[in-house]
Write a structure and sequence with these properties.
It is built from 19 helices and 28 strands. The chain is α+β, with helices and mostly antiparallel strands. The strands form 5 sheets. Strands 1, 2, 3, 4, 5, 6, 7, 8, 9, 10, 11, 12 and 13 form a 13-stranded mixed β-sheet that branches. Strand 25 and strand 26 form a beta hairpin. Helix 2 crosses helix 3 and helix 6 crosses helix 13. The chain is globular. About 3% of the residues have low confidence.
Length: 693
């Protein structure tokens, strides 16, 4: 709603720090005239409005349309939240640890949020990931526009190696000082709703920029915990994310370049003053103490912050400052582009498939730049390249070209799988006669011998994001290789009551990672007893339907030769090499909690055959209930016990030809997120980045 001139004038006087008397003197009118304008008793003519605009330093169009003016970079500040007086402290945003801090997870969560905000249903969301590597003067210019001098002091005092969040900051600051290199990751979406809504009250803007664990989503949307946005901050070395949004509906009379920034830090003290951690970047809000508002930016400011959008379509651009992969496996620009591409393609290939009558839900690409020059060609993600068989299956379903049996390699067989819908503990009005079952769609299509992961089923619902992919077990000998897709809820092709109820049920059954349909707290709280069994039966029925439909569907070949598996057994050629384990695994872990509060662990490693020795860098992780498990530090060096030795870098080199090795390790209690006696621990065995001599 456009505000009246009186409210606009009063707000602008306060923002500019002017009194009515001072404005009257600048305009050559009486203070009484300005007072009448400010209280709505009268309204100035156009000529006087133009003079008021000039006196306030705003565009005449802003005064005429009663909208906030654009703010230049010189008007922006970082405002840090003061610590509460009760002495409580927060060591960072807990939501950021719900997911692994890696680029594939970020691609999944950010793209899901874009799909959830699709604006025009007849058009796809366009999602574009752009990496910018900055050095030299390009880096200096960006840091100046960001107000780096203001936040660096806070970053350095918050960089406490005794805290997990602090250790990430220490590493990020050291890396920036050492390399003089900073990576930005901009995530643009178009044909999305944008960050609409008021500054502080409920709306998309407040949920994303100001609130934690508040999604406001429902129906067919993917998110329900408000956690996905935290992946943006988790993949910034400094916890800094900026936004630029083009709104689908106006706010304060404007739509373009609504910008803001948020910094996530743990509690810290600076110059004798305590800060809670979070900070916001924007125009100082003179109506509230210790607050910064979003601002309407000019083109120059957006460009200086690498946030200028290339299309007027509504949507939002997020800029992750100091983007990195928390696993440490991906550092170079080329590797980062590959990780992002894989994260989008693996999770959203079905969303990018379109039919003859209905287009795709999503289009996506990944680009890389160095200092304003394209470093790698932009990659447009084609689902038919990444997932040819399953993409063929979804397209056939959208086009209505499925079959009832498989007679050729291009056929797509369609069947139905029944999902029993449990009753809700507190049914909505009129729900007593709601459907009791939902018929989901099962698609099966042959795949090639070159498919490295055949015989799998993918589960998905409304936006066709892959919720889970798993191998189908207990298939009969000689079966035809296949790929299968289970479309449930609104993805089944209609929006009847059963599809809507199934969508709501399966949404409740997804954990924060949205990587399965299982029993969650939401399911237990919302549905009557037996809901968990409904989910298990649904998934079992889908796999059993695949087994039944594939009976008699052997691999193609000469019928007189019999099934392929028998032909392989009776061949006169040299037998195939048996499959071997491709990487080391943990065979056993024993241990106890020491008096110091550490885990004292003894780990047995099973090693596959290899010509050269294995060099590993074991990692201990605390197991959490949802999300990725949390790594903890070792206290000192690992102790080799059997068939292994320490390298100069502190890694473990296992003896050539050894099939088993043993080592001991003690965790550092100061790195534990919870007390050791309240935890479970697991061991990962990543390969070390070390040249084997």
């Amino acid at each position: 709603m456009i505000q009246g001139f009186a409210d606009w004038l009063t707000g602008m006087l306060e923002q500019r720090g002017l009194t009515q008397k001072q404005l009257a003197a600048a305009l050559g009118v009486t203070p009484a005239a300005v007072n009448a304008w400010a209280h709505g008793r009268s309204e100035p003519r156009y000529e006087k409005i133009a003079a008021i605009a000039e006196a306030l330093g705003v565009a005449v169009e802003d005064a005429v349309n009663r909208r906030p003016p654009e703010s230049s970079g010189s008007e922006l500040e970082w405002v840090f939240q003061k610590a509460p007086e009760d002495g409580s402290r927060i060591g960072g945003n807990a939501a950021a640890y719900a997911f692994a801090a890696n680029l594939e997870v970020l691609a999944r969560e950010a793209t899901q949020n874009s799909l959830d905000e699709r604006y025009l249903p007849e058009r796809p969301v366009t999602s574009r990931f752009v990496l910018h590597e900055l050095t030299g003067r390009h880096l200096e210019s960006f840091l100046s526009a960001l107000g780096w001098a203001s936040i660096e002091r806070h970053l350095r005092v918050a960089a406490d190696h005794r805290q997990k969040a602090g250790r990430v900051l220490v590493d990020g600051l050291n890396e920036l000082d050492r390399s003089g290199r900073l990576v930005l990751l901009r995530i643009d979406d178009y044909n999305a709703s944008g960050l609409t809504g008021p500054e502080y009250d409920d709306g998309r803007f407040a949920r994303v920029v100001r609130r934690t664990l508040d999604s406001g989503k429902g129906g067919a949307q993917g998110g329900s915990y408000g956690l996905g946005k935290a992946a943006l901050w988790a993949t910034s070395r400094f916890g800094v994310v900026l936004v630029n949004s083009t709104l689908s509906e106006s706010q304060d009379g404007r739509r373009e370049r609504r910008m803001a920034g948020r910094l996530e830090l743990p509690w810290h003290a600076l110059d004798g003053e305590e800060f809670a951690g979070p900070a916001w970047f924007g125009a100082v809000d003179h109506e509230r103490s210790n607050a910064a508002r979003s601002w309407w930016a000019d083109g120059a400011t957006a460009e200086s912050l690498y946030l200028e959008r290339s299309d007027p379509a509504p949507g939002t651009s997020f800029l992750v400052v100091g983007a990195y992969d928390g696993t440490g496996d991906t550092e170079e620009l080329e590797e980062m582009q590959e990780q992002l591409t894989a994260g989008i393609a693996d999770n959203f290939w079905a969303s990018m498939v379109g039919g003859e009558q209905s287009g795709p839900l999503l289009r996506a690409s990944v680009a890389s730049w160095r200092n304003g020059v394209e470093a790698l060609p932009e990659r447009i993600i084609d689902p038919h390249v990444h997932e040819p068989a399953r993409s063929r299956a979804v397209k056939a379903f959208l086009d209505g070209r499925t079959t009832t049996q498989l007679t050729s390699r291009e056929d797509v067989l369609q069947a139905s799988v029944q999902l029993k819908l449990p009753a809700r503990k507190q049914p909505d009005r009129g729900e007593a006669g709601s459907p009791k079952v939902h018929d989901a769609v099962l698609l099966i299509t042959p795949t090639t011998d070159q498919d490295p992961r055949p015989d799998r089923i993918s589960y998905m619902r409304a936006n066709r994001m892959v919720v889970k992919e798993k191998r189908v077990s207990d298939l009969h000998l000689g079966h035809r290789r296949f790929q299968a897709v289970l479309l449930a809820g609104l993805a089944a092709g209609h929006n009847g009551p059963d599809a809507i109820d199934a969508e709501r049920f399966l949404r409740a059954a997804e954990p924060p990672d949205h990587n399965d349909w299982t029993s969650t707290e939401d399911v237990t709280a919302t549905y009557v007893r037996g809901a968990r069994q409904c989910i298990l039966n649904f998934k079992k029925a889908a796999e059993q339907e695949i087994r039944d439909l594939l009976k008699g569907q052997e691999e193609e070949g000469d019928a007189d030769e019999g099934p392929q598996i028998l032909r392989d057994l009776l061949t006169l050629e040299s037998p195939r090499s048996p499959r071997t384990q491709g990487f080391p695994t943990v065979h056993a872990v024993t241990g106890e909690v020491a008096a110091s509060g550490s885990w004292d662990l003894r780990v047995t490693v099973k090693l596959p055959d290899r010509d050269s020795s294995w060099v590993l860098s074991p990692v201990a992780r605390f197991v959490v209930r949802s999300g990725s498990n949390i790594p903890v530090d070792w206290a000192g060096m690992l102790v080799p016990e059997q068939a292994c030795e320490l390298t100069n870098s502190g890694n473990l080199r296992f003896d050539d030809g050894a099939r088993r090795g043993v080592f001991r390790g003690v965790t550092d209690p100061s790195s534990h997120p919870v007390a050791a006696d309240m935890s479970c621990v697991e061991i990962d065995l990543p390969r070390a980045k070390e040249i084997v001599e």
